[in-house]
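To: structure desk
From: M.T.
Subject: fold request, one chain
Message: Could you run this one when you get a chance? Sequence is below, nothing fancy, just the single chain.
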Amino acid sequence: MNAVTVVGAGLAGSEAAYQLAIRGIPVRLIEMKPKKMTPAHVSPYFAELVCSNSLRSDELTNAVGLLKEELRRLGSIVMRCADEHRVAAGGALAVDREGFARAVTEAIRALPNVEIVEEEAVDIPDGEVIIASGPLTSDALAENILRRTGSEGLHFYDAVAPIVSLDSVDMESAFRASRYDKGTADYVNCPMTEEEYTAFWKELTTAREAAVHGFDDGGVFEGCMPVEVMARRGFDTLRYGPMKPVGLRDPHTGHEPYAVVQLRQDNADGTLYNLVGFQTHLAFPEQRRVFSMIPALREAEFVRYGVMHRNTYLQSPGKLDRYYRLIAEPRIAFAGQITGVEGYVESCASGMLASLEMAARLLGLPPVDFSQETAIGALGLYISHGS
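Reply: Done. Structure tokens follow.
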């Protein structure tokens, strides 16, 4: 049997490569890291989490929780490694970034029928292929994909939140709690008075931004909006968004704060915490200056600053079918955020569905049937039909 080529070893590509390989199908996995890095990646590992370390809610009562459970029951390598490297995050599934990515990488490298090719793919390979090159697809490959699909590429701008060391946080000003006391006290909460918030908001709305070619406030992804863009939408926008104090009581005062910045654990050792909802593209010195106005972060050590990057994706409805295959050339399937799915778990789910369909076809089995009553099937149907 000829090998299936998987382009990209992010969440979708890693899941696809693993699912194909454990079914006895040879896989050629092309990944340009570490020889060539994108503006947002820093790790040599597969399945690197670029933005948040959270895979969002783990509750079966919401869509992403249900999607995770379906993936677990299908034997997802991404979900297995995420569960093994879970860190405290209340009702959400958050992971130690490095431990998680290393575990996915080791699991795939241990498979005897997976060939790892560390080079940049500049065109769509021959034969059966799953393209999971992500929203940060290199320019050469993106141009060839768009030429092959006969559609215009779409894009938006995405941002990453800063990370601070816990021992630099002033715990005399902060307190540990989860909102509404739900679960254990997993978040470090940094309260602000009305006066402190007002001064912070004014500086945030006028702070100097890093240069990003082609960026303007209208091109941001609403689900990962830079905190300074949110601030410019109105004085109270942040207080109804990432800085909402609802469900939190400051034990120092006995009252609900005027505004709160939450920090979420980012590594297994509990030494690093990210600023929840504080994606940003401010210049690095401005991030230090403005975010240090948060009382608990006055002396904070920033181990990683926030950055912004452009994401590219396909105009999938009418181009891809419910299995993420290219309708005009079914040997080519896509997976991950390049298809337009949003989020880590959704990317993994698209890699799962694309690979299961391809494996069934190559092994002479009936097509997989994920109906619209399943979260995985509904996602594929939405991507392919747009409604």
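Reply (cont.): The chain has a mean pLDDT of 91. Let me know if you need anything else for the meeting.
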